[in-house]
Design a protein that fits this description.
The complex is a heterodimer of chains A (about 525) and B (about 300). With about 525 residues, chain A is α+β, with helices and mostly antiparallel strands. Among the domains of chain A are: about 65-185, Alpha-Beta Complex (Dipeptide-binding Protein, domain 1); about 285-505, Dipeptide-binding Protein, Domain 3 (Dipeptide-binding Protein, domain 3). In chain A, about 30% of the residues lie in helices and about 20% in strands. Chain A has helices at about 1-25, 50-60, 110-120, 135-140, 170-175, 185-190, 245-255, 270-275, 300-310, 315-320, 345-350, 360-370, 390-405, 415-425, 445, 465-475, 480-495; strands spanning about 30-35, 65-70, 75, 80-85, 90-95, 100, 105, 155, 160-165, 210-215, 220-225, 240, 260-265, 280-290, 325-330, 380-385, 410-415, 430-435, 500-510, 515, 520, 525, 530. In chain A, a hairpin with a 5-residue loop joins strand 6 (about 100) and strand 7 (about 105). In chain A, helix 16 runs antiparallel to helix 17 (about 480-495). The longest helix of chain A has 23 residues, at about 1-25. Chain A is globular, with a radius of gyration of 25 Å. In chain A, about 45% of the residues are buried. In chain B, helix 4 (about 85-120) runs antiparallel to helix 5, helix 4 (about 85-120) crosses helix 7 (about 170-200) and helix 4 runs antiparallel to helix 10. Chain B is flat, with a radius of gyration of 24 Å. The relative contact order of chain B is 0.15. Chain B has about 300 residues and is mainly α. Classes of the chains: A alpha+beta (about 525), B mainly alpha (about 300).
């Protein structure tokens, strides 16, 4: 009885909170919102785009089989429902009867054609790997298989799409919301495969908005797509997307009321914006780390790598240097990615405690490696790409290593392209790096450290690690699979070819009256349900 | 005269050819490539892309193909902005940069030239000192400082003008002043010294002696002769300012051409690097040519064609 009462009490309180918030929410008469995308998009062809700014525009003009909800769980969108075979490899999607923005019907054939187009070698799509999960997708994309009909996607009829995967892929349904897997309009694309989207009249989509104006390097204007199947859920009458690179300028526009929302304010302004209540942090799956070139002395010795990793104070670095409220990374895979059991977080399960910031142990490890108190340790060079922020972090780490371990460190910065080439050729000792996930699964962080992966610029190679990663592809049981990924991370953190520093967060500077937009941990924004509260 | 024009036009082609070849060699010597990114592409996809953009052809062939297309006026597709050609980029960006630049030059002339004359006519008096003090600030303070300051005072604090963007006359004012700061100050200093120079000439004394009013002397004799150094400097300045400024356009979010001189190199967007460099050099040579013709018109003593002996 007592328990029932308390449940009831809770319910009443909850009801009060929700009604209170309803009462407080008066919609503004003008439902217009502006956001700074931050750069001129490189392309608006969903099949060919690679960046977050492009994805933000595309995902608001297109809709895939699924769409993510605010908890980042894929929900039925153009696909009304689906069935998955027992082995987890065959998906049959039942599609809704929906329309393109020009009023023509959208069918399963559109999906089949679009996915095969994204895979075709002549399309030269950089993110075609997002479709390699489909049976024969990789072979077709690599040109080994010429017959497109052998690729595992097929329109059974106008509203049924059958997808056969190479391996059971637990995160396939969320990939269906990724730009590469959006349907594109065959008629307009075939007329001008390279630049069909350049003329906004040809930019026919199936998502909540459509573009009505694109001034290159300046601004884009979007209005609701009248043919969107849930048009009634779109409340904005106009969505303005600025394409401004300079963050200081964006901040000035924000402060004078010309802009409602933008990312990445200048670091020096973060404390002030936070005090004013304009700064909102949202999760962003990414890790900032240093790589060790394990083929070069002295970092070829795991004891040295561990000593270096232990001898920095990450929280101090965040509080004094990056000042963005990031999370210290004492493991590699960031928070926010699913573990085996539904609702469980990979990082929470694995723990953010692989690395112990322990000076005594670090000194002992360095002494064991033959450098007591740093004696005889050669001067170490940190390589970073030219940027004020990377420089400040490198200087802080240089100072910490010098003070804590008694070793000399020098800094080298290189222009972006040169720096990438140096990394690629293993022409460095310690190099700054960062990784942002491409999909919401730990795999997007772990598969890059396999021996043959093009992103493994450390020279590190471990057979057991490779076997765990490649083996996990075949495992349909999500709990067993997660276990393998944890084991892989154990190996990575034990051998330490990389030194995690912090987990990224997204710094949103936003007016308090902006509501209903959903920012995903991949950095994407869904403006479908966005609205504006009344304000002065 | 016809022969002279022809010779100059041939030299334009020559300059463009040398610039194109030099840029091509330099840009292929720096490490990296347009599709080399932080996230390494699988080899097969890298191959698809290189095939698509003919980047796997031998360099000499890429060079020959480029020159062939250049002769037809085709600067090729941008590697960074898919579906846009470098011609599109210049066609979109140049009018914006040119309009802003023209206003800036006009502003610099209207402010700088009279200031220099006033300064010279009042040598060592307070007017002179004031103008020269401002001019020193104008020459030595970089334009991003002026731009940021102008934006902070007139857009953020006073709210008289928009912070950034492009489109209405109100958007022109702040970037125009930021861009005109250096040339205006430079014009003032140039004009002051050349005016002082002319004032000490004998013919000025003669003109005064024959009873011409001071005003007429200044307008007819002093200014006309003193302006020549300004015209000389105008050539490279016009080319530099009309083709866009990276800094000012970046700060005021103006969709001009200026950004591409910097970002194209950063992106290793080969065709855009080539395109904007060639465009700039051709424009510079052309403007210098126009300046030379203007000389002859202002000062008939300067002959473009050697007199027949």
């Amino acid at each position: 009885m007592r328990r029932l009462m308390s449940v009831l009490a809770c319910f009443v309180v909850l009801l009060m909170i929700t009604t209170a918030s309803f009462a407080a929410e008066t919609l503004a008469k003008k439902q217009e919102l502006s956001f700074n995308v931050g750069t001129e998009p490189e392309t608006l062809d969903p099949a060919k785009s690679t960046g977050v700014p492009e994805a933000i525009i595309e995902l608001n003009c297109f809709e895939g089989l699924t769409r993510m909800d605010e908890k980042n769980v894929p929900q039925p969108a153009i696909a009304e429902s689906w069935t998955v075979s027992k082995d987890g490899k065959t998906y049959v999607f039942k599609l809704r009867k929906t329309k393109w923005s020009n009023g023509e019907p959208l069918t399963a054939h559109d999906f089949e054609w679009s996915w095969k187009r994204a895979l075709a070698p002549e399309t030269a799509a950089e993110y075609a790997t997002q479709l390699w999960y489909i049976k024969n997708g990789q072979a077709y994309n690599e040109g080994e298989l010429k017959d497109a009909s052998k690729v595992g996607v097929r329109a059974v009829d106008d509203y049924t799409l059958e997808v056969v995967l190479e391996n059971p892929t637990t995160y396939f349904l969320q990939l269906c919301n990724f730009p590469t897997l959006m349907p594109v309009n065959r008629k307009v694309v075939e007329k001008n495969p390279e630049g069909w989207f350049q003329d906004i009249k040809n930019y026919i989509g199936n998502g909540p908005y459509k573009i009505v104006k694109w001034d290159h390097s300046a601004v884009m204007e979007l209005v609701p797509n009248e043919n969107y199947w849930r048009r009634d859920e779109v409340k904005l009458s106009k969505l303005t997307l600025y394409l401004i690179d300079n963050r200081q300028t964006a901040l000035s526009m924000f402060e004078t009321g010309q802009l409602d929302w933008f990312d990445d304010p200048p670091i020096s302004e973060i404390p002030r914006l936070e005090k004013e209540g304009s700064l909102f942090r949202s999760p962003y799956i990414g890790t900032y780390y240093y790589m060790f070139n394990v083929t070069k002395k002295p970092v070829d010795d795991v004891r040295v790598r561990k000593a270096l990793t232990m001898a920095i104070d990450r929280q101090m670095l965040i509080d004094r240097v990056t000042r963005g409220g990031q999370e210290p990374a004492l493991a590699y895979v960031p928070f926010g990615l699913a573990d085996g059991k539904p609702g469980a977080d990979f990082r929470t399960v694995g723990g953010n405690d692989y690395i112990k910031e322990n000076l005594a142990v670090a000194k002992k490890l360095l002494a064991d490696a033959g450098y007591p108190n740093g004696k005889g340790f050669p001067t170490l060079t940190i390589l970073y790409n030219t940027s004020e922020n990377h420089k400040k972090i490198a200087e802080a780490i240089q100072e910490m290593w010098k003070k804590n371990l008694g070793i000399n460190v020098q800094l080298t910065n290189q222009e972006w392209g040169v720096y990438l080439a140096s990394r690629d050729e293993l022409n460095y000792e310690v190099a700054r790096a960062g990784w942002i996930g491409d999909y919401m699964d730990p795999m997007t962080f772990l598969d890059m450290w396999t021996t043959t992966n093009g992103n493994n610029d450390t020279g590190w190679s471990n057979k057991t690690y490779d076997n765990l990663i490649f083996g996990s592809f075949k495992v349909a049981d999500s709990i067993a699979r997660a276990k393998m990924l944890h084991q892989a991370e154990d190996i990575l953190m034990n051998e330490m070819p990389i030194m995690p520093i912090y987990f990224y967060v997204n710094q949103n500077v936003m007016k308090p009256w902006v509501k209903g937009a959903v920012r995903s941990p991949l950095g994407f924004i869904d403006f479908r349900g966005a609205y504006v509260l009344e304000h002065k | 005269m016809g022969g002279y024009v022809l010779r100059r036009l041939i030299s334009v082609f020559l300059v463009v050819f040398v610039v194109a070849s030099g840029t091509f060699v330099l840009m292929h010597t720096i490490p990296g490539g347009p599709f080399k990114k932080e996230k390494a592409l699988p080899p097969a996809i890298q191959r698809n892309i290189e095939e698509r953009y003919k980047l796997n052809d031998p360099l000499w062939k890429q060079y020959a193909d480029y020159l062939k297309n250049l002769l037809r006026g085709d600067l090729g597709p941008s590697f960074k902005y898919l579906g846009r050609s470098v011609n599109d980029i210049i066609r979109d960006g140049f009018p914006v940069s040119a309009a802003l630049g023209a206003w800036a030059i006009l502003f610099a002339l209207v402010v700088g030239v009279p200031a220099g004359i006033i300064s010279a006519l009042n040598q060592n008096k307070w007017q002179d000192n004031a103008v020269m003090a401002i001019a020193i600030i104008g020459v030595s303070v970089p334009n991003f400082v002026i731009a940021t300051l102008l934006m902070y005072v007139f857009a953020v604090k006073l709210r008289w003008l928009p912070v950034a963007m492009w489109g209405t006359p109100r958007h022109v004012i702040l970037p125009m002043i930021a861009l005109a700061g250096f040339p205006a100050a430079f014009f003032a200093r140039l004009m002051r010294s050349s005016t002082l120079d002319v004032l000490s000439q004998d013919y000025i004394r003669t003109a005064r002696a024959k009873g011409l009013s001071w005003y007429a002397v200044v307008v007819k004799h002093v200014v006309k002769n003193a302006i020549l150094p300004v015209v000389t400097y105008l050539g490279p300045l016009v080319a530099g300012i009309l083709t866009g400024s990276f800094v000012v356009e970046n700060i005021f979010a103006i969709p001009g051409l200026g950004r591409y001189y910097v970002t194209s190199i950063y992106n290793r967007d080969y065709t855009t690097i080539m395109g904007v460099t060639i465009f700039y050099s051709a424009f510079l040579v052309l403007v210098n040519f126009l300046v030379d013709i203007t000389y002859g018109w202002i000062d008939p003593r300067i002959k473009l064609v050697k007199a027949k002996e």
